């Protein structure tokens, strides 16, 4: 799937979720909002993990190269 398709699917999901939860106040809308919240939490935790992982690798690389120069 390309980025455009994923973006369109995300916008459609968001629109359907908001209509079902806020306008119609259905149980399916509530479930979809819960699913969206869980996906957001996973996204935030995953992003933090990959950023920290990158910084640790960068620190080790820089530390190793400084010892090689001296």
From TrEMBL:
Keywords: Membrane, Monooxygenase, Oxidoreductase, Transmembrane, Transmembrane helix. It comes from the Bacteria. The chain crosses the membrane at residues 7-24, 30-52. GO terms for molecular function: monooxygenase activity. This is Antibiotic biosynthesis monooxygenase (ABM) superfamily enzyme. It comes from Alkalicoccobacillus murimartini. The lineage of its organism: Bacteria, Bacillati, Bacillota, Bacilli, Bacillales.
């Amino acid at each position: 799937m390309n980025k455009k398709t994923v973006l369109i699917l995300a916008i459609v999901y968001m629109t359907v979720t908001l209509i079902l939860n806020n306008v119609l106040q259905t149980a399916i809308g509530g479930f979809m909002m819960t699913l969206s919240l869980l996906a957001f939490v996973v996204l935030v935790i995953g992003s933090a993990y990959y950023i920290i992982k990158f910084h640790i690798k960068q620190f080790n690389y820089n530390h190793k190269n400084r010892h090689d120069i001296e």
